[in-house]
Amino acid sequence: MRAAAACLVLLTALTALTAATAGAQPSTREAAHAALKSADPVERGRGVVLLAREGGMADVPALIAVLRDPHPELRPLAEQAIWVVWSRSGDAEIDRLFEQGIEEMNSGRAKESIATFTRIIERRPDFAEGWNKRATVYFVVGDFERSLADCAEVLKRNPVHFGALAGCGQIYLQTGEYERALDHFRRALAVNPNLEGVAFNAELLERVIAEQKKKKGV
Length: 218
Hints:
CATH class of the largest domain: Mainly Alpha
CATH architecture of the largest domain: Alpha Horseshoe
Largest sheet: none
Order of helices and strands: HHHHHHHHHHHH
Structural class: mainly alpha
């Protein structure tokens, strides 16, 4: 999803959340962090939206904390805000290429999108999301080895990337490496406990592994 579009989703959701409540929008990152500490979920929501607009990688830990917010509407807002921040390279040309690669990926042009994300990686190897999106395309086309290699590069740069962790889990699940799959699913959930599909797979694998061990007498 494009950063601008994702911000619009966040704003729309926040509008629904705060329809009956008036208040000033925080205007700085510092104000956003202050809002995230508020007892009022509306204020915390405003903080999430502002960080989606203006935040950087240093702000991600604060957004990750909101993934466990007691107000359930804020958790998906925080998750989308994290993706928005992760997708922002800080370089306008790289961001343009990134949107191009996503458009190619979403339209099924795998070869073109791999080439575009490779250009991004060559120019900005520190931009973890370039690696992550190429890993996604490699997964879609069934090149699990390259996908895992790119996921490893993502996690070197962004160890809390729950998308890459879950992606590794999916690959190991596909290849029958259940212990590794479960480990990566658990690591993803340790960062973001709201990944319902990942939680389902982890629970299923726990039962499968336990049954396998029972049969082996372990």
